[in-house]
Amino acid sequence: MSIEVKIDDHTAKVELIKREGNLMTVRVDDKVYDIDLMMVENGVYSILSDHISYNVELTEQEDQKHYNVNTLYNAYDVEIIDAETRYKQGRKGDDVDDVKRIFSPMPGKVVKILVEVGDEVKAGDTVIIVSAMKMESEYKVQKDRVVKEILVKEGDTIDGNQTLVVVE
Amino acid sequence: MSIEVKIDDHTAKVELIKREGNLMTVRVDDKVYDIDLMMVENGVYSILSDHISYNVELTEQEDQKHYNVNTLYNAYDVEIIDAETRYKQGRKGDDVDDVKRIFSPMPGKVVKILVEVGDEVKAGDTVIIVSAMKMESEYKVQKDRVVKEILVKEGDTIDGNQTLVVVE
Amino acid sequence: MIKKVLVANRGEIALRVMRSCREMGIKSVAVFSEADRSSMHVRYADEAYFIGPSPSNESYLNIENIIDVAKQSGADAIHPGYGFLSENAAFSERCEKEGITFIGPSPFSISSMGDKIKARTRMIKANVPVVPGTAEPITDEKLAIEKIEEIGLPVMIKASAGGGGKGMRLVKKKEDIVSAIRSARSEAKTAFGDEAVYIEKYIESPHHIEFQILADKHGNAVHLFERECSVQRRHQKVVEETPSPLMNPEIREEMGKYAVAAAKAVNYHGAGTIEFIVDNNLNYYFLEMNTRLQVEHPITERVVGVDLVKEQIKIAEGKELTLKQDELKQFGHAIECRIYAEDPENNFMPSPGVIKHITEPLGLGVRHDGYVYEGYEIPIYYDPMISKLIVWAKTRREAIERMKRALYAYKITGIKTSIPFLARIMEAEDFITGNYNTHFIEDNRDFLMQQEPCGERCKDMAVIAAFVHYTDKVEKAKGAQNGKTAQANAWKNFGRKKSIMRW
Amino acid sequence: MIKKVLVANRGEIALRVMRSCREMGIKSVAVFSEADRSSMHVRYADEAYFIGPSPSNESYLNIENIIDVAKQSGADAIHPGYGFLSENAAFSERCEKEGITFIGPSPFSISSMGDKIKARTRMIKANVPVVPGTAEPITDEKLAIEKIEEIGLPVMIKASAGGGGKGMRLVKKKEDIVSAIRSARSEAKTAFGDEAVYIEKYIESPHHIEFQILADKHGNAVHLFERECSVQRRHQKVVEETPSPLMNPEIREEMGKYAVAAAKAVNYHGAGTIEFIVDNNLNYYFLEMNTRLQVEHPITERVVGVDLVKEQIKIAEGKELTLKQDELKQFGHAIECRIYAEDPENNFMPSPGVIKHITEPLGLGVRHDGYVYEGYEIPIYYDPMISKLIVWAKTRREAIERMKRALYAYKITGIKTSIPFLARIMEAEDFITGNYNTHFIEDNRDFLMQQEPCGERCKDMAVIAAFVHYTDKVEKAKGAQNGKTAQANAWKNFGRKKSIMRW
Questions:
Q1: Which CATH number fits domain C132-201: 3.40.50.20, 3.10.290.10, 3.30.300.130, 3.30.1490.20?
Q2: Taking CB atoms and an 8 Å limit, are C306 and D394 in contact across chains?
Q3: Which range of residues forms the domain containing residue B33?
Q4: Which of C313, D72, C359, D491 lies closest to A43, judged by CA?
C-alpha cells in the first residue's frame, strides 16, 4: 500500500515494503531505505538510516493529516494525501477560497476592526489589526471585496488560523 | 461528598466544599483550606494556599487509586479509599496473603531460583535471587512454607511487584 | 538584612532573581497576572500573589497592586528585574516612601539618566566623552547650521523628547542640512508636541559596547569590564559577548574609568550599565546609562565570576562592596544568545503558543536561564523571549564552537524559535572573525536567512516519520475496532522483547 | 588529526564525550546494546551501530564487536569513557594493533598501574610516598610480625590478589596479629586461590584526595590540582569538591609534583588521576592511579577552566600540551553531586523504571551532565547513575548554597532518586564546615536519613492533590458517559477564560 505525502511543494509516493518492530524497509518515490525507526518521545522519532542518526520531531495538526516536521535545522510542512484529501482537492473549486477568509497565522488579540458587515473594501485595505507580543499586524484584503461576516470583536483573544472576517 | 484518602498510616476525610475553576475550598479532616490549585503539567500540580506556593507531583498507579505523591523533599504513598476499596478491605481475610507471594519491589532479572514446586522451605530460606543494576537481592520466606507455584524462570526480565513464586 | 524579596517581574528574569535569593536564604514572593498563574516563577517562588489582568499595565506595571502585595506579604524589599518598573523613578520613590527597600538606584539617579539631554549635560560636566553635538535643544536654524559645520558631517538630528526613530534625520551633505532640520522639527512636533531637536555626530560603523558597573551606598564603585552588543536587529540585541573582539587593554581601562565616573556623577548605587558607541578606530562616546540589570548580564557574571543579583541585594542592604577594581579579572570568553518565540523565516513574527516538547542543552560551559516547560503556553501579552543561552570557553573561537553545539542540542517544538537564525550567526564569517558592527545582521542578511541544507535523505526521513506516524495511527484505530493489537506498539515495548532482529 | 571518534560507552559520559567532539568538528559514532536503542547517546551521535544484547559483557565489553564497528564506520579513534573497557590494557593494545587511536594511555601504562603491588613498587622507586607497609607479598608469618612492629599499629592486612574487602583484616592490638594474618591468608586462598598478603599502615581518619594529571606523548605533564572525594558510601563516591577544604598551598604543590612524578614513572600519556589517602595531619600516601577520565572530572574543568576531553583528544592526536603548570590556577569552588536512580529510604536499592517527568536545574553556576529524558526507561543492566550535577561559586560556602538551590529545583518523578539524600548532605554540619573524612556518611547516618519535615499543611496539600486528581478523573469519566463536559477542564483552559474570580 502506498500513500502520497506532500512535503513543501513536492508530493512523494511512500510505501512500506517490510516491517519488523522498529526495523523497516520503506520506499520513497524510487529510493528504498532500510531504516531503524523508533518513537522515543511523544512525537519524537529517532531514525537510523545507513547508521546515520536522525532526529525528527512531529507536531500533529488537529486533522491528524498535517504535520510540522522538524529536522536538525529545517522545518517542513508535511501533509498526508489520502482518499479523503484527494476527494476534497477534486472539488476544491467549490470551497471557500482562502482569500475570502481573513485570519492571523498566530494567536493574539484583536486590537481594531476597521470594517462593518456590508462594507465594500478595496484591494489592499486593512480589515483588522491583531496584536501578539508587543507587535501589531495589519490584515488586508487582496482584492476588492464586500464584508460578509465579522466573527470576532475588538479585545477578543484569538487562536492562530481562526477565521476573523469573511469577505466575498 | 467526602472521600477517605490514606496517606502513610493516616486516613483523612477530604471534602470539596466549593469550587470555581482552579479556586476551591477543601476540608481535610477538621481543617478548611482555601486554595488555588492548577495542574500545570501532566500530573504536576501548583497549589497556592495562603499564598504559599506548593508543587506536588503525582504518579498514578495502574488502578488509578494509588498514587506516589512528591512534595519538596518528601515522597508519600497515597490511596483513595472508595466504596470498592472498602469492600475489598472488608473481605481481605479471604485474599491471598502478601506473605504467600514472593515478589521484587523493583524490576530486574531473575538470577537464580533455589526451589522447585512442592519443596518445603523453612522461615528465612532464600527462594529466589533477583538482580537489578549491578546489585543482587535475595528474597526469603518469612514462615515455613510449601512452594506452590513458580511463575518465572531464570534469566527472565521481571516487572516491579510481579508475583514470582507462590507459597502456602 | 533583607529577609523577603518581592520580585516585580515574570519569565526568566524573575526566576533568575529568585535563584539568587534562595541561595542567600531570602524568601521570594512572586506576583502574577491572569495569564501567568501557571508560569514557572509562580511555581518556583515561596509565595505568590495575584496582581491583576493579563495586560501588563493592569498588573506588572500597576504600582499600587505591587506595593499592596509587598505589605501583605511582609516583603522588605522589591527587585524589579528588567523592563516593567525597573527604570521607573516614581516606583523607586514610592518604595522609599513605604519603607520598602528598592533593589536598584535612587529616584534621583534613575531620572537623571532617564532624560537623554540632561544625562548628556551631566556627562560633559564629569568629563565623560559624549558624541560630539549640541548639549542643549536647538530651536534656532542658523545656530544649528553653525553647530553642524563645527561638528562636521555626517550628523544625526534627533528630537529632544524623542525615541523610536521619530524626529530623526541623518544628514550627509551640506545642502540637505536645512531641509533635514525642518522636517525633523515638524515630525518631532507632531509626534511629541515638542519641536526641539539636538544634533549629534553620526558614527559610520558603530559598535555598541557597554560597561557593567557596581556601586555601593558608601561611594565605592567598580566596573566589571565590557560587553559587546553590536549584533542587533531593529535595535534589539540578539547576541552579546565579552570580551569585545574590538577592545584592547588600554582602551578598556580608559572606558572602565569613564563608566565609573559616569555612575558617580549621578550618585549611583546598585548595578548599572554605561552604554558607549564606539567607531572602528576605537573612538568611544557615552550613549546612555541603563539604571538596572541587563538581559545580557550573565556573560559578565561568567567571565568575571560574580553573581550580580547577589551584589545588587548586598548593596541594597547597605553593605560595602567587597569587590576591588584591581582584583577583578576577565577569564575566558562568554557569549549569550537570546532565544525568542519568533519565526525568523516569516519576518521574525512573534510565535506564541504551547510548548509541545523541549530538550535543553547541557554540559560543560553551558548556562541556561529559561522559564518555559512542556505544556506551558507562552502568553501573547509579554515579551517573546523564552530563554538566554550562555556559553563560556577559554577562547572566543572555542566559545563559538560551544554555542553551536548548544544550539544544536536545544530543541523546542510547538512554536517557532530564533534558534536556527542564531546558529547561522555563529557560522557567519564576519562574526567568527569578530569583524562586525551594528550593521552586521543587515549586511549579512542573505547568509543569515539561508537555510542549512537538510539534504535529500534527511528530507525523506521527515517524510517517512510522518508516514509511519500516520499509518501507525490508522492501524491502531483499526486494531481497536477489530480488537486486535496494532503493530504500532513498538513504542516503548522494545525493552521487554527478548530479541530484536537486526540487519 | 582525528576526524571520527567511536565512543565505546553509553549514558551521560558518552554524551559528554560527544559534546566535545562536536565542538571540535569531529564526527561521533555511538554503539548501542538492545536495551539502548532509545538512549540519548544514540540520538545525539552522528552515527549509531548496534553491538549486541543488553548485558554489558555481550555488548559494551565485547571488544570484537566494537572494533568491527570502528572499521565499518571508518572511525579513526575510540574514546572508552569510564568503566567498561576504559582500563582494559588488552583493548588499548588491540586498538593499537588495528591502527585505531585509543584515546587513553598505552597498554603498558594501564597494566603497570592495574596491579596494585607492581604499582606500589614503581611508586617507591619514583620516590612517591606510599602507605608504609610491605612492598612484596608476605608468606612468612614471622617476617610479617617483624614488619608490623616496624610500621606500627594499627595496620591493615590485605590480599595481594584481592579486592572487594575479601582477605582484608584490620589489626589494632598486638595480640591479634597472628590470628589476623592466618585468617586473612585463608580467606584470600579461598577467594582468589592465592594466599599471599601484604601489610599496610591503617589510616584512622582517611581522606580520599586525588590529583588530575594530563601528560602528552612528548614527555610533558602537568597536574590540575586536587579533588576531595571523601564523601563515600560503600567505597562509592557520592559528592566531590575542589579545592579540598583540608588542603593548603604547600601540601598541594608537593602532592601535585608527586602526582606528575607518578604519571611519568609509567610513561603515562592522556588524562589520569592519582589517588592519595591523606590523614588529618596532612600526611599523604599514594593509593592507586586511575588510568582514565573520572566521573568527577567536571569540577576540575570548572575551577581550572579546561575541557579535559578535548585535552585527551589532542594528546591522542600527538599534539604537545599547551597548558603550562605555572599558568594553571584554581578559581573559585566547585562541587559535584552524583544523581542515582536509587531509593535512599530503602537501603539505596536501585530504582530503574520510566522517567515520568523531569525538571532540570538551570541558571548561574550550574552544570548538568545527564542523559535521561521524559518517557525514557532506565534499563536494569547498567549503572544507575542518572546525571552529574556540578555547581561553581566564588567561595565554598556559596557553592554549597548553590548546590542546595539546584537540588531544590531538580525534580524527577517515576523513579526514586538520591536527590533528597544529597540535599541532606549539603545541610550536614560536618560537610558545611569541611570537617569530614571517608567516615562522613556513616558518622552522620542519623542526620542524613532524617526527612526534611514537610509540615502538616504540606502533607495536606499532597492529600488534596490526589483527591482532586481522582475526583476530576471520576467526573470526567461520568461526563463522557453523560455527554456533559467535566468540570475537570481547568487544565490548560484558564488562558482562554475571560476572567477568573479570585479571593
A1: 3.30.1490.20
A2: yes
A3: 2-81
A4: C359
